[in-house]
Specification:
heterodimer, A: alpha+beta, Arc Repressor Mutant, subunit A, three-stranded antiparallel beta sheet, elongated, B: alpha/beta, 40% helix
Chain lengths: 479, 475
């Protein structure tokens, strides 16, 4: 057997994820109310979302198409007939007293996701409606409910227990995120709750025949917390088992401030959801024609885009992969390429732009960098108006202010000095002031050449054209 | 009151819509049978006036100028809709049911909303929060249920037509007990939008009238394809009123073999035999069919209907609308007290049964098995309809019975639906028509047709009513 580096203290973690994704549609899953985030409370609510007596759900075909897309993207089986079920439980933000979901006949079954070094199987993905939102901190001694979210379509993606470590779980989650954002199934915004994750975690001895008892950690809302919560839970379970106790089947909550999971509900208090087929909705047939229609309308998947980028823009594997990891970055790159040099743009996006994104922890879309100001920057580098070093400064300025690079360069006097005469006199004065080093150079200390370049750059505040400087210095030193 | 005559009087301007409406309102206000939950005198008179003022626009509509009473299960925009429950005593829906909307559009004038068993759960109209309805044929007798108010309204000559809903017999059984004609259409013919759900997979709205003609005209108005109800059928519309004159020829009518073993009252069987002779006299051929599965229907029904109702009624939790228990300190007490205080005993009983049969460990034994039985009955009907055009049997086991029988024998009440339930389980259309008086009380005969055979049912019933006067008997 190959070395298993996912073992922790001799225990094998076994993980399955349930990912809830809010689907992008015009209207809700069963009502004509708008599906939007961030509007005033209870302004996007139809009679159906309030669960008024006598009102009936009507399935939104747009949500069905989104589900089909996900199925196609994960090489899954798409149901010929899907059936909606009712999941019954009482909660104030669940107006009907049941959630309409899919239990036995989901829209998508048996998919697979490639996370690079391994494949994770998807058990099923099903359509269901979101609940409203209870708020307990808005008024003293009163809880209030916002039903804007009530009835928003969700795709719940359930993996098989194929994941063996917290980093693998994060990779899987990132891959799901990539697929849903690439295909515009969802905006995938975890902080706004459009992508939420439950993790089922258990541990076992590597030679055990059966999985251990699992705990379900609910509602984790960032990649970082998924990793932390799972790692905490693995350690907790090891401690429990090594202490001679047994892991309880239960639902736990991850507290990110304390970095721990806490028991929320044990098995004996688990809800009996009394699932049964929803009699208000007839079994829905999905025709081959509809699947074909969706297939034809589908955007490029990441792997396809990578292949195309390599061919079209002459990128290597690494460059293509990094640029395509997020759709917004890939789109940005393509916009920039319409105006300026692809190779140089790729290099700068992968290096400097990504560094800024990571440093400030915001997305490219939310930053002040646009394809216009960025391509103009690349053009300035390409035509040697500015050096690479100065370009980094300008990029920072764009990041901070969103100003046009042309204006930044002008106002700060950052144009590269390429004038031969000017550079030559600067170079000459550097050599004149460093006669001993010139002597040493001439007696064979070649490495000192870089010192002279540095001195010229210092004098010009980095604005000297490096290629010209090299040439001039060589000429002067060898004369 | 005869619908056809009333409409002719309006169309020939003999009686204005306002006069007809005023007359109906006056009678309704003198009602001694507790038929109504709410009256709408002013609104009705205004609408009637509007119709009179725009006579040409309204005169050819199927329900032109006709006062009507709707079962209080249909949501009416800005008008209290109670469903016979304390839970909705003050509930004013901001929307209109498709049924009432269609009836309004067809020129009818709603004068009142009728009493009913709470959430349509009952066969005697005794479970209403607003008190029991009396049968116009005898004050101590029940009118049947759950659409008891609507049946009594037509029987008492207050309006010529009314609407009801039928989940396990809730139109046909009160029609039989009150001596009027009532029909449950094919599941999906009439939209359920805005009709408060009891058992969604069986609930179906339908008409009451004295005769098949009134039922046909009202059904013409009620039925329409509705995009807001996913279970509503998208089929070519037929005019039921016109189909009354069609000649369907000589039919083969199935009658149940060994029907005396089902526990049907002798007088009812007697009346049933008389009707068989009438049918034969009309040129139809009677053919005995074996339908031993018939009586299993009731077991299936009393699992599936409570199961669905336990879920459908979850929304009545005191949070958003309807009754809310006062001064509850936490959410679970608010739920428990609201539902304990807001629902009556029969509703609570069915919610408990429904919750039980759906719960883990019991689902397969009850709910799934009940669905299998339902499938068997549906298949059996399909088989039978390969052989015959219609099935004929009595509507009920008994004639109108005395109030308060429930307390002495609760199962007897459930059994009351034995002959009506099979059509609901299968989703088939069925009609109950007056089948002659026995003991000075009405009996009901029931015809069941294949899917979307409403035209046939109404046509044959109409033919029976052309040669008999059972439907003309009044209390």
């Amino acid at each position: 057997m190959a070395q298993n580096d996912t073992l922790i203290k001799g225990w094998q973690p076994v993980i399955g994820l349930e990912v809830h994704v809010q689907i992008l549609t015009n209207t809700k899953l069963f009502s004509p109310a708008k599906n939007k985030f961030g509007e005033d409370a209870n302004t996007l609510v139809d009679l159906i979302d309030m669960g008024l007596p006598g009102v009936l759900p009507v399935l939104n075909e747009g949500a069905v198409k989104q589900g089909i897309k996900f199925g196609l993207a994960t090489s899954a089986k798409i149901a010929k007939t899907m059936i909606f079920d009712r999941k019954n439980y009482f909660y104030p933000d669940l107006p009907k007293g049941y959630q309409i979901t899919q239990l036995h006949f989901p829209i998508v079954k048996d998919g697979v996701v490639d996370i690079g070094d391994k494949k994770i199987r998807i058990h099923q993905a099903h359509l269901e409606e979101d609940a409203g939102k209870s708020m307990h901190d808005q008024y003293d001694a009163k809880s209030v409910i916002d039903l804007n979210r009530s009835g928003i379509p969700l795709l719940e993606i359930v993996s098989e227990p194929d994941i063996r470590s917290a980093p693998e779980a994060v990779n899987y989650l990132k891959k799901i995120h990539q697929i849903i954002t690439y295909l515009d199934i969802s905006d995938g915004n975890m902080s706004q709750g459009s992508m939420r994750c439950d993790a089922n975690v258990s541990i076992m001895r590597p030679d055990a025949k059966e999985f251990g008892t699992r705990a379900e950690i609910k509602n984790i809302n960032s990649f970082k917390f998924v990793e932390k919560a799972i790692n905490y839970e693995i350690k907790r379970q090891i401690k429990v088992l090594e202490g001679g106790e047994t892991v309880e089947q239960e639902t736990r909550l991850y507290d990110s401030t304390k970095d721990e999971t806490r028991s929320m509900r044990t098995k004996e208090f688990a809800n009996d959801y009394r699932y049964f087929p929803c009699p208000d909705l007839v079994p829905t047939n999905i025709s081959e024609d509809l699947i074909e229609e969706v297939r034809k309308s589908m955007d490029e998947l990441p792997e396809e885009k990578e292949r195309r980028f390599k061919k079209e823009y002459k990128l290597d594997d690494y460059e293509a992969k990094v640029l395509c990891s997020e759709k917004s970055t890939a789109n940005f790159f393509e916009e920039v390429c319409k105006i300026t040099d692809p190779t140089l743009s790729a290099k700068w996006i992968i290096g400097e732009v990504n560094a800024l994104i990571n440093k400030h922890d915001i997305t490219l879309d939310d930053s002040k960098i646009t394809s216009d100001n960025f391509s103009s920057l690349i053009t300035k580098i390409k035509d040697e108006t500015i050096s690479g070093k100065i370009a980094k400064e300008v990029l920072e300025e764009i990041w901070n202010t969103g100003k046009d690079p042309e204006k930044i360069i002008k106002s700060k006097g950052l144009e590269q000095i390429s004038d031969e005469g000017e550079l030559e006199s600067i170079a000459q004065s550097v050599l004149d002031n460093n006669s001993s080093q010139v002597e040493a150079y001439k007696s064979g200390k070649d490495k000192l050449f870089g010192y002279f370049v540095g001195q010229v750059m210092k004098k010009t505040q980095g604005k000297a054209n490096p290629a010209s400087i090299n040439e001039i210095l060589k000429r002067l030193l060898n004369s | 009151m005869n619908f056809k005559l009333q409409r002719e009087n309006f169309r020939s301007k003999k009686i204005s819509a306002k006069e007809a409406t005023q007359e109906a309102i006056d009678k309704a206000k003198k009602d001694k049978f507790n038929i109504f939950i709410n009256h709408f005198e002013n609104e009705a008179l205004l609408k009637a006036e509007h119709i009179d003022n725009n006579f040409d626009e309204f005169k050819d509509l199927s329900l032109s100028g006709i006062p009507i009473a709707h079962k209080d299960i249909f949501c009416t925009k800005n008008i209290t809709t109670t469903c016979g429950s304390k839970m909705l005593e003050n509930f004013v829906p901001p929307y209109e049911s498709t049924v009432t909307k269609n009836c309004n559009a067809a020129g009818s004038i709603m004068i009142a909303k009728t009493n009913m068993d709470e959430f349509a759960m009952g066969s005697s109209n005794e479970t209403s929060f607003f008190g029991p309805v009396s049968n116009p044929w005898g004050k101590d007798l029940v009118p049947g249920g759950s659409s008891g108010g609507s049946a009594a309204c037509v029987a008492a000559n207050i309006t010529s037509i009314s609407t009801g809903t039928d989940t396990g017999g809730s139109i046909r059984q009160p029609a039989a007990l009150c001596g009027v004609t009532g029909m449950k259409p094919t599941y999906g013919l009439v939209s359920r939008w805005g009709m408060i759900a009891f058992c969604s997979s069986m609930d179906q709205a339908g008409p009451f009238a004295k005769d098949a003609f009134g039922c046909a005209a009202l059904l013409d108005a009620m039925a329409s394809y509705d995009i807001k109800d996913s279970t509503c059928s998208k089929r070519k519309e037929i005019c039921f009123e016109k189909s009354l004159n069609k000649n369907f020829g000589n039919l083969k009518i199935g009658v149940i073999k060994n029907i005396d073993n089902l526990g049907i009252n002798k007088d009812i069987l007697n009346a049933y035999e008389n009707s068989k002779i009438v049918l034969q006299g009309l040129g139809h051929q009677l053919s005995e069919i074996d339908f031993s599965e018939l009586s299993s229907g009731i077991c299936s029904y009393y699992v599936i209907a409570p199961a669905e109702c336990s879920s459908n009624l979850s929304r009545f939790d005191g949070i958003k609308f309807g009754y809310r228990s006062k001064d509850q300190k936490d959410i679970s007490n608010l739920y428990m007290q609201t539902r304990s205080e807001g629902f009556g005993d029969e509703v609570k009983k069915r919610i408990l049964i429904g919750t039980h049969v759906l719960s883990a460990g019991f689902y397969d034994a009850y709910y799934l098995k009940a669905q299998k039985v339902r499938r068997i009955i549906k298949n059996k009907f399909e088989e039978i309809f390969k052989e015959v055009d219609l099935i004929f049997m009595p509507t009920t086991l008994d004639q109108a019975f005395e109030k308060n029988r429930e307390s002495s024998d609760p199962n007897r009440m459930y059994k009351e639906d034995l002959l009506t339930i099979p059509a609901n389980l299968a989703g088939l259309p069925a009609i109950s028509f007056p089948n002659g008086l026995k003991n000075n009380l009405p009996t009901g005969g029931q015809l069941i047709a294949n899917y979307f055979g409403e035209d046939l049912l109404l046509n044959i019933t109409n033919k029976i009513q052309e040669v008999t006067d059972w439907h003309k008997m009044i209390p």
